[in-house]
Amino acid sequence: MTSAPTILATCKQTRFHLLDDNPSSEIDVEGLGIVVTSSTPPTTEDPSKPKIKGKSKAKAAGQELISDGHLRLKGGVHYGLLGRNGTGKSTLLRAMAEKLIPGIPHATRIAILQQTDDQDESGSTYGLKLENPVLESVLGSDEARNEAARLADFLSKSFEAEDPLKPVQAIRKIRHEQAEQKLFLAHKNAHLKSGARGLQARKDLKAAESKLDSAQELLAQELDAIDAETVTVDTQAAVEMLQTLQSQLEEMKLADMEKEARRILLGLGFKEETLGKKVSTLSGGWRMRCMLASVLIQNPDIMILDEPTNFLDLLGVVWLENYLQRLSENSPTTILLVSHDRDFINAVCEEIVILRDQKLNYFRGNLAAYEEDFEAQKLYLGRMKEAQDRQKAHMEASIRENMKIGKKTNDENKLRQAKSRQKKVDDRMGLQVSARGGRFKLNRDLVGWHEHNRAEIEVPTDERGATMTLPDATELRFPGPLVSLEGITFRYKSDRVILDDINLVVHIGDRVGIMGLNGSGKTTLIRVLTGQLAPSKGKVTTHSRLKVGYYGQHSVEELQERGRSEPSLTALGLLMAETGDALNEGAVRGLLSSMGLQGRTASDVPVAKLSGGQLVRLALARIVWSAPQLLILDEITTHLDFHTVTALATALSSFNGAILLVSHDRFLVRSVIEGKRDTDHKLADDFEGLEEEETEVNTTRRRSVYVVKTGKLNEQTSGVEQFERSLVKRVQKMLAT
């Protein structure tokens, strides 16, 4: 039997106290450690075997994600959390939201958007009641308001009853619930603290136990035994609590909340008529939008957003950018978000948190500034190390020469000179700058005796993730367009026209980008082009030797379902079965390695346990092994981190076949389709774009960005920028109303 993985979080004592009733939008936790325990239960030892003396206590089996980290968030600041897939970003966010990290005050209100829609026992998805209408479910997701409303309703009904002792029972029941909560926190506090603070925590625990016992006695007291004075005191306490709760609810202004919730839902792409539909009738993507709306409406102390743009079209992304930018001006809420969308991080985040090598590092500025500073540091420290290595090599050669001459001629001066230079090599080589960025001075920056006086020069290395390499397209025996759409019209049985007179021709080497809002017909166009749907009118012509590699929106979900149905299936086994005799095991391993799935990850890890980013790589391997001339990629960035998106952009840039890309990721469309090297985003040196085409003969590609709108395919003469400008104007009008 296996149990679900558990998050274990530890930290040093901080200035925060677990029992602090004051919420805070700041977090300052030092010595943070996060371990995810294994789901496999420990083996039971044989009691007949003697225990080995001195054997250390076994540690919990698991993976250490963060070790001695410093989690520091300032109030009201918007942070972007960066890190490669698998480093523990989502685990850290979950540990914060569930307050598993001891240094987070219990009273702090944290709202989180996670990339999951798992239901709890009550049939809700992170506060969303699936059987309630969309608008009602979003409004009902605020736990603080729900609790205040529940208690106010409970007390109100007690006063409506004819029995005058009902308010006394009600206030005693509420006090009993509060005492249970206090005892839970006191137990947690006493377990985590030691020393003087631990002694105080144990005293608090005894006090909480005593208070719960008293509340239990009062709750169990016979009504006839309650004297008149106690009835009066408890009834007055119930009245005061009810007035306080009603005041809190009035301050929350339900009418204003409903107006704001409606505005948020419409901004995220909902239509007015869909706000009354049950959440359970929505697809997974629209449920995630509901969850995002429920987080935005809560006005928490800390807001955590894990890939909030995954299920949004570009209009929704631009709207969310503007909404969060305005939030930073009008609200003290601290935001911590993860996103693969570089433009979104740049627009929203003021500071960057980097999770790397089990540590948390911070940079004041957005992603573009961080990457620029990273490149400058790499260049500066690289040159410093090269110069110092040359100096060190010269000095060591001089030391060897002086030692040789000194020993040969018995020259004490030469030997002393060699010893002095050796001391300089040992003690003075290293980082030449202080922690403040100035020149290092021994008597100021490193007072006292140290074995090594200076830190080693560590040149930062790129963290772009594993690279990707696509096989060249199969050569065509004769020229001609790969695919041609002539006068394509498509309508469903309802006679609603989805595509209206579409004309498109794709040749080998072309780069075609398709953008548009959700529901505009992008996926329908792709399905017609690939032959999955027959057009109502028009003609689709393909090259007789055309091979197509198609990555669909549900490619990852299909692999996940396959992995669940075949628990032992690995990436290697899956691809070996699909390629048949066309590729041997060595070739399949090489292909998977070129996609970033090396060694045991490909051969030993079951498909069901691969991460989202790894599944994208496997899905790519499935479509490129036959060397297609046309790659059709529909929203491929959904499960990738931004490092992998960069690697993907570089791989696609050098592909010699044609690419048809459907995406709302502006960076990917600009780089792959338009061939532009973004000034704000660093691309790998082997990226092949417009600059490379201008320096080579006969390599010019056709590059076009289209927008599907009202059934028409409209070419954007200014590319992504033109489409984005139109959406910004639309969003500004939406936010102004």
What does this structure look like?
Helix content is 44%, strand content 16%. It is of the alpha/beta class. The protein is globular. Helix 3 packs antiparallel against helix 4 (166-192) and helix 4 crosses helix 6 (228-252). The model is unreliable at 40-60, 119-123 and 447-451 (pLDDT under 50). The chain has 23 helices and 20 strands. The longest helix is centred in the middle third of the chain and has 43 residues, at 367-409. Among the domains are: 7-41 and 60-109 and 300-365, Rossmann fold, CATH 3.40.50.300; 145-254, no CATH class; 370-445; 483-547 and 627-736, 3-Layer(aba) Sandwich (Rossmann fold).
Give the helix/strand layout:
Layout lengths: L6 E4 L16 E11 L24 E12 L4 E5 L6 H9 L12 E4 L10 E2 L2 E2 L4 H6 L3 H18 L5 H27 L2 H26 L7 H25 L1 H14 L16 H13 L5 E5 L7 H17 L3 E5 L3 H7 L2 E6 L2 E6 L2 H43 L2 H17 L13 H4 L37 E9 L5 E10 L4 E5 L6 H8 L7 E6 L5 E4 L3 H11 L5 H9 L5 H10 L4 H5 L8 H13 L5 E5 L7 H12 L4 E5 L3 H8 L16 H6 L7 E7 L2 E4 L4 H17 L1
Parallel strand pairs: 4-9, 4-10, 5-8, 8-9, 14-18, 14-19, 16-17, 17-18
Antiparallel strand pairs: 1-2, 2-3, 6-7, 10-11, 12-13, 12-15, 19-20
